[in-house]
UniProtKB/TrEMBL annotation:
CDD domains linked to this entry: ArgRS_core (cd00671)
Catalytic activity: tRNA(Arg) + L-arginine + ATP = L-arginyl-tRNA(Arg) + AMP + diphosphate
Name of this chain's protein: Arginine--tRNA ligase
Organism this protein belongs to: [Ruminococcus] lactaris ATCC 29176
An individual GO BP term: arginyl-tRNA aminoacylation
One annotated Gene Ontology cellular component of this protein: cytoplasm
Family membership: Belongs to the class-I aminoacyl-tRNA synthetase family.
Coiled-coil stretches: none
């Protein structure tokens, strides 16, 4: 028995011994997954690499090594093939033993970080009082998954929504409100700052006020000036406007929470740009005092260009000539705040990749000026655009900006129809199931693409029960659940049952896929790449379905064999459920 490590680590140990015993360096003993699955399961190309050093034909080295693998614990077959590859197949008993250890381990063989890091993830980033649109969807979906993955590896992770709650949109709303309800106490000079409970608008009114005001301001110079001035007054502590701001925040945040809950996205912190404002004066003072900041045409800036830049990186803008703070300022002040309150080892920003330059400027400035410690890692994880089938940014049928709510409704409708057609779910539950499967369709559709790339959001494809889709993954999990349920209903009890050595190719292929779990998690974690987790579960689902079609599971007469299958199914289910949890969705009982 061994402490579960990744399978590759285990078999590499044996391979090293074989190299050393044959008189070669152990550094040659690197084992990888086979790129010719038709010939072998794993392979080692070390003999090729050693030819020069040992002045020997690679095939001779490979043969020497293979001779030492005859008594192997893990390999059923180790073959030297020309020009010098070592082709490997695992012993079915070894595979089964590995899987049993994995099943017994509470972390399924995943090793937790020995020195957990404190990580903050800045994601979501909705703008208060503006409707959520599909652009915000990606940040929420990707950020949530990354948060779960990093946390799963044992780190201390905090997800911060970083609300856009301090901008011009607030001035616009105040201005429009004043036009409509000039008698509100907030507009009275004598307003003392007390905060009345009832908001002067509902969420639907608020959702209408912003676009109306925004459109009007574009046409009317005076109105725009007024809104800018209102923004200025708000930001400088004008009591009546502060009170309206609080109302806007309360009403919007309640609504945002509902939306994110529907998406299974959970923030630990509901901080925003407004929270960072109080750190600005001290920060500006420091930047001036230490000589980092200088005035350029009236604006206060910090140079961040570096000699090796092959593209121009403009200075970080700290204050405009009228003294107003900017986007750069707020993000820097937020880092001051984060440093003061949480001392993160790492801050990851999940934001549209078109904002990359802004983050390059902010990161450089924060490092150079000591706002963060030199060892703090600042990472920008830029994502691409979600496009429609026409390859252009996703729009409604009428060509307008697609609101998140509407997109979700569309997917839910589609799922509802399919689920009703399948007739496996009672009508009363169909809506709930449709919402659950719909969310998987959206999230998997998004996460299965490399985050930095643009992708096409294709409702028909994403909601399909077949192919590389969320519903297909859920369908596979539901299938496993239903077999396990039937087994239990028929009086079966596989508690303590062990997975047995595979007897056929489909069974072994499934096992080989299950046991990669911890390696995949490590890669996905190291590369912050949820799309690789999607690729893994898609392969796993395929292997399971192949196995299912070729194997009589419940009608197997040999009880030991049957409970071995059940143990394998239990493990496959646990792995799949863990993975979808890391992707941020769940599976129903039926669909
Ligand atoms: N609210 C911003 C937007 O919608 C995104 C915020 C990203 N995070 C940040 N720390 N700047 O564009």
């Amino acid at each position: 028995m061994w402490k579960v490590r990744t399978l590759l680590e285990l078999i590499t140990i044996e391979m090293k011994e074989a190299f050393v015993k044959a008189g070669y360096g152990e550094e040659l003993a690197r084992v990888t997954l086979s790129n010719r699955p038709d010939l072998c399961e794993y392979q080692c190309n070390g003999a090729m690499a050693g030819a020069k050093k040992y002045k020997k034909a690679p095939i001779m080295i490979a043969e020497d090594v293979v001779a030492n693998l005859a008594e192997s614990q893990c390999f059923a077959q180790a073959e030297a093939v020309k020009p010098g590859f070592i082709n490997l197949k695992l012993k079915p008993e070894f595979v089964a033993e590995y899987l049993n250890e994995m099943a017994a381990d509470e972390n399924l063989g995943v090793e937790k970080e020995a020195e957990p890091k404190t990580v903050m993830i800045d994601y979501g980033g909705p703008n208060v009082a503006k409707p959520l649109h599909v652009g915000h969807l990606r940040s929420a979906i990707i950020g949530e998954s990354i948060k779960r993955i990093i946390r799963y590896k044992g780190n201390k992770v905090t997800g911060d929504i970083h609300l856009g709650d301090w901008g011009y949109q607030m001035g616009l709303i105040i201005t429009e409100l004043k036009k409509r309800q000039p008698d509100l106490p907030y507009f009275d000079e004598s307003f003392g700052g007390e905060y009345p409970e009832e908001a002067p608008f509902t969420i639907s009114e608020l959702e209408e006020i912003y676009p109306t005001a925004s459109a009007y301001a574009k046409e009317h110079e005076d109105y725009r000036e007024e809104a800018l001035h209102a923004t200025y007054l708000l930001q400088n502590g004008y009591k009546g406007y502060r009170a309206i701001w609080k109302h806007i925040m309360n009403v919007s945040v309640t609504d945002l929470k509902k939306n994110y809950e529907r998406l299974n996205v959970e923030f630990d912190l509901w901080k925003g740009e407004a929270d960072a404002q109080k750190y600005i004066p001290g920060m500006v003072e420091m930047l001036k005092e230490k000589g980092f900041a200088h005035y350029d045409q009236g604006a206060l800036v910090v140079d961040v260009a570096e000699e090796t830049d092959n593209k121009e990186v403009p200075p970080c803008m700290i204050l405009k000539s009228d003294g107003a703070a900017l986007y750069d300022t707020t993000d820097l002040a937020t880092l001051v705040e984060r440093e003061e309150l949480y001392q993160p080892d790492e801050v990851i920003y999940v934001v549209d990749k078109r904002q990359e330059l802004h983050f390059i400027q902010v990161f450089r400035c924060a490092k150079k000026t000591g706002i963060v410690r030199p060892e703090t890692e600042l990472k920008f994880l830029g994502f691409g655009t979600m496009n429609g089938k026409d390859g252009k940014p996703f729009k409604t049928r009428e060509g307008g900006v697609m609101r998140l709510e509407n997109l979700i409704r569309e997917i839910d409708e589609e799922m509802y129809k399919k689920i009703m057609d399948n007739r496996t779910v009672e009508e009363a539950d169909a809506r709930k199931t449709a919402a659950e499967v719909g969310l998987a369709a959206i999230k998997y559709g998004d996460l299965s693409n490399q985050a930095s790339k643009d992708y096409i959001f294709d409702v028909d494809r994403f909601t399909s029960f077949e192919g590389n889709t969320g519903p297909y993954i859920l369908y596979t999990i539901v299938r496993i659940k239903s077999i396990l349920k039937k087994y239990a209903e028929n009086g079966g009890n596989a508690e303590g049952a062990k997975i047995l050595a595979a007897e056929n190719a489909a069974e072994k292929a499934l096992m080989l896929q299950v046991l990669k779990f911890n390696e995949v998690i490590d890669t996905v974690y190291a590369e912050t790449a949820p799309h690789k987790l999607c690729a893994y579960i898609y392969d796993l689902a395929n292997e399971f379905n192949k196995f299912y079609h070729e194997t009589k599971i419940l009608s197997e007469e040999d009880e030991a064999k049957k409970s071995g299958y059940i143990a394998l199914l239990n493990l496959a289910k646990k792995v799949l459920e863990t993975c979808i949890d890391l992707l941020g969705f769940t599976a129903p009982e039926r669909m």
